[in-house]
Amino acid sequence: MKKIEAIIRPHKLDAVKDALHEIGVTGLTASDVKGFGRQKGQTSTYRTAAMQVDFVPKIKVEVVVDDRIAPQVVETVCDAANDGQIGAGKIFVSNLEEVVRIRTGERGPDAI
After folding, report:
1. Euclidean distance between the first and final Cα of the chain, in Å?
2. What is the largest CA-CA distance in the chain?
3. 70 with 94: CB under 8 angstroms?
4. How far are the Cα atoms of 27, 62, 111 from residue 37, in angstroms, in the given order?
5. C-alpha span between 93 and 64 (Å, rounded)
6. What's the predicted TM-score (pTM) here?
7. 16: closest CA among 75, 62, 69, 77?
8. Which of 65, 67, 80, 87 could form a disulfide linkage to 19, CB 3.0–4.6 angstroms apart?
9. Torsions phi, psi of 110, nearest 5?
10. Are the CB atoms for 19 and 72 separated by under 8 Å?
11. Are 34 and 58 contacting, i.e. CB atoms less than 8 angstroms apart?
12. In 26-81, which ranges are E strands?
């Protein structure tokens, strides 16, 4: 099993969610996060004064999938979240040792 975490722009969440649903991903977790990468934050203006904002608002999308569909999930998120601009996001893929569904006690791929 793989855990796929994607840091994306907030306005891309619906596109990513819909694209994942189309390929059969039945659940995801989305969290509001802040951060910066190569873009080094952004400059905003408040009452005619320019201010540097180091942390940019992003959305972290997390899905857990079977190893077999992980590459397809990564490609789907890339396609749906890419806007061609710096700061479009990153995807992290991790191995999972165990998943347990609390309600039923199912384990492994059955718990996904």
Report:
1. 9
2. 58
3. no
4. 28, 19, 34
5. 10
6. 0.84
7. 77
8. 80
9. -65, -25
10. no
11. yes
12. 29-35, 42-46, 49-53, 56-65
CA angle 59, 60, 61 (to 5 degrees): 115
SS3 helix, strand, coil % of the chain, rounded to 5?
A: 30, 40, 35
* pLDDT string in tens for the chain (112-residue length): 999 999 999 999 999 999 999 999 999 999 999 887 776 655 565 666 656 667 789 999 999 999 999 999 999 999 999 999 888 999 999 999 999 999 999 999 999 8
* C-alpha distance from residue 96 to each of 9, 27, 53, 89, 105 (Å): 26, 16, 35, 22, 17
Tokens (6 digits) for 7:
């840091």
CA 4 to chain centre: 7
Integer-rounded Cα radius of gyration of the chain: 17
Contact 88, 4 (CB under 8 A): no
Amino acid type, 36: F
